[in-house]
Design a protein that fits this description.
Layout lengths: L23 H7 L10 E3 L3 E3 L3 H12 L6
Antiparallel strand pairs: 1-2
Protein backbone atom coordinates (compact mmCIF):
# COMPACT_ATOMS: atom_id res chain seq x y z
CA UNK A 1 0.00 0.00 0.00
CA UNK A 2 1.40 3.37 -1.00
CA UNK A 3 0.95 6.35 1.31
CA UNK A 4 -0.34 9.63 -0.13
CA UNK A 5 2.32 12.24 -0.90
CA UNK A 6 3.55 13.97 2.23
CA UNK A 7 2.11 11.30 4.58
CA UNK A 8 4.41 9.10 6.66
CA UNK A 9 4.27 6.53 9.44
CA UNK A 10 7.12 5.40 11.69
CA UNK A 11 7.48 3.36 14.83
CA UNK A 12 9.59 4.15 17.88
CA UNK A 13 10.44 2.12 20.96
CA UNK A 14 10.11 3.66 24.42
CA UNK A 15 13.26 3.11 26.48
CA UNK A 16 13.55 2.45 30.20
CA UNK A 17 13.65 6.19 30.95
CA UNK A 18 10.52 6.86 28.87
CA UNK A 19 12.53 8.29 25.98
CA UNK A 20 11.86 7.66 22.31
CA UNK A 21 14.17 8.08 19.36
CA UNK A 22 12.65 9.97 16.45
CA UNK A 23 13.56 8.08 13.26
CA UNK A 24 16.26 9.74 11.14
CA UNK A 25 13.97 10.10 8.11
CA UNK A 26 11.44 11.97 10.28
CA UNK A 27 14.16 14.22 11.75
CA UNK A 28 15.43 15.00 8.26
CA UNK A 29 11.99 15.70 6.78
CA UNK A 30 10.92 17.96 9.65
CA UNK A 31 14.31 19.59 10.31
CA UNK A 32 14.58 18.32 13.90
CA UNK A 33 18.07 18.91 15.28
CA UNK A 34 19.74 17.94 18.59
CA UNK A 35 18.71 20.38 21.31
CA UNK A 36 15.43 21.35 19.61
CA UNK A 37 12.38 21.66 21.82
CA UNK A 38 9.31 19.77 20.64
CA UNK A 39 5.74 20.44 21.66
CA UNK A 40 3.74 17.31 22.51
CA UNK A 41 -0.04 17.53 22.50
CA UNK A 42 -2.06 14.74 24.09
CA UNK A 43 -5.65 13.67 23.87
CA UNK A 44 -6.72 10.56 25.80
CA UNK A 45 -9.06 9.56 22.97
CA UNK A 46 -6.99 10.56 19.93
CA UNK A 47 -3.39 10.04 21.11
CA UNK A 48 -0.24 12.13 21.02
CA UNK A 49 0.66 14.63 18.30
CA UNK A 50 3.95 16.41 17.70
CA UNK A 51 3.13 19.50 15.63
CA UNK A 52 5.76 21.23 13.48
CA UNK A 53 8.22 23.52 15.27
CA UNK A 54 6.58 26.57 13.72
CA UNK A 55 3.41 25.77 15.69
CA UNK A 56 5.38 26.09 18.94
CA UNK A 57 6.79 29.49 18.03
CA UNK A 58 3.38 30.72 16.83
CA UNK A 59 1.76 29.57 20.09
CA UNK A 60 4.52 31.16 22.17
CA UNK A 61 4.31 34.42 20.23
CA UNK A 62 0.52 34.50 20.51
CA UNK A 63 0.58 33.83 24.24
CA UNK A 64 3.29 36.31 25.14
CA UNK A 65 3.07 39.13 22.61
CA UNK A 66 1.85 42.51 23.74
CA UNK A 67 -1.24 43.68 21.93
CA UNK A 68 -1.22 47.33 20.99
CA UNK A 69 -4.20 49.33 22.07
CA UNK A 70 -5.51 51.91 19.77
Amino acid sequence: MNAPDGKYAWTATVGEKGQIVIPKQARDIFGIKPGDTLLLLGDEDRGIAIPPKVAFSELFHSAFSEKSEG
